[in-house]
Design brief:
This protein is α+β, with helices and mostly antiparallel strands. The chain is built from ten helices and six strands. The strands form two sheets. A four-stranded antiparallel β-sheet has the order 2-1-4-3, covered by helices on one side.
């Protein structure tokens, strides 16, 4: 029997959900208090991260005024930029950085793949899906409809980038581009759609340790399955059919 990890029956969640649809974060939280800022400052040494990091990091945020994506790199990392990359406009005030205001990067890049193509040498991209791309049932209740709208919106930027990658791949495979000016990308994907489809929008607000461990265990299990089946194909060929999965 599938355990329900949603908060649909929580009076606190229902009240907060209703409140967020009537009042904005600027009304509910006029002093713009965000407990995540203190947690980030306490747990992450951003100065060291900016100075010395073994891997390239890219965080994207959406410019509220222009609607354009902004990608933050290692040298720019700080608590404000992390908060900007995860700022949901119905629950948090836009995060101001250098005079501009930002919302969650998922609206324009979820994740943004172009930095991996232009700024990294590796041809392999492994996409870890946290939102289901497909749902078997048509949403009929208001929360279900809103949840599906958000899923489609957050997946749309990924689908657009995958379409561009597929287009370039076809040009290379057909021999129409042979001068090496464009890189043939190898795409891989790890997902758990069968599990994520069972979780409603309210589960995203479930911070229960048991639930977080549940998600952690599923992630490790699916990653292990993928590694066992496809690790040898890294650097050789894609292990996902881009056209079937994304187009």
């Amino acid at each position: 029997m599938t355990q329900n990890h949603g908060l649909e029956h929580s009076p606190g969640y229902l009240f907060f959900d209703l409140l967020s649809r009537v009042f904005s974060p600027y009304q509910i939280n006029p002093f713009n208090y965000n407990p995540m800022r203190a947690i980030l400052d306490e747990t992450i040494d951003f100065e060291r991260l900016r100075r010395k990091c073994a891997i390239k990091l890219f965080l994207c945020a959406t410019n509220v005024r222009t609607g354009k994506v902004r990608v933050f790199t290692n040298e720019e990392m700080c608590a404000s930029r992390v908060l900007a990359s995860a700022c949901l406009p119905l629950f948090c005030q836009a995060v101001e950085i250098d005079g501009e205001h930002f919302w969650d990067g998922g609206y324009m890049g979820n994740p943004a793949l172009f930095p991996l193509i232009y700024d990294c040498q590796s041809r392999d991209i492994i996409v870890i899906h946290i939102n289901p791309t497909n749902r078997a049932d048509i949403p009929k209740t208001a929360p279900e409809i809103i949840n599906r709208i958000n899923e489609i919106s957050f997946n749309s930027s990924l689908f657009r980038e995958m379409r561009a990658i597929a287009f370039v791949t076809n040009l290379i495979d057909d021999g129409r581009i042979s001068d090496g000016s464009l890189k043939r990308m190898l795409i891989h994907a790890i997902d758990a759609d069968d599990v994520m489809q069972q979780l409603g929008a309210s589960s995203k607000f479930n911070a229960d340790w048991e639930f977080l461990i549940h998600l952690h265990d599923i992630g490790r299990e699916r990653a292990g399955i993928w590694l066992k089946a496809h690790l040898d194909m890294i650097g050789i060929e894609s292990t996902v059919d881009i056209r079937a999965k994304y187009l």
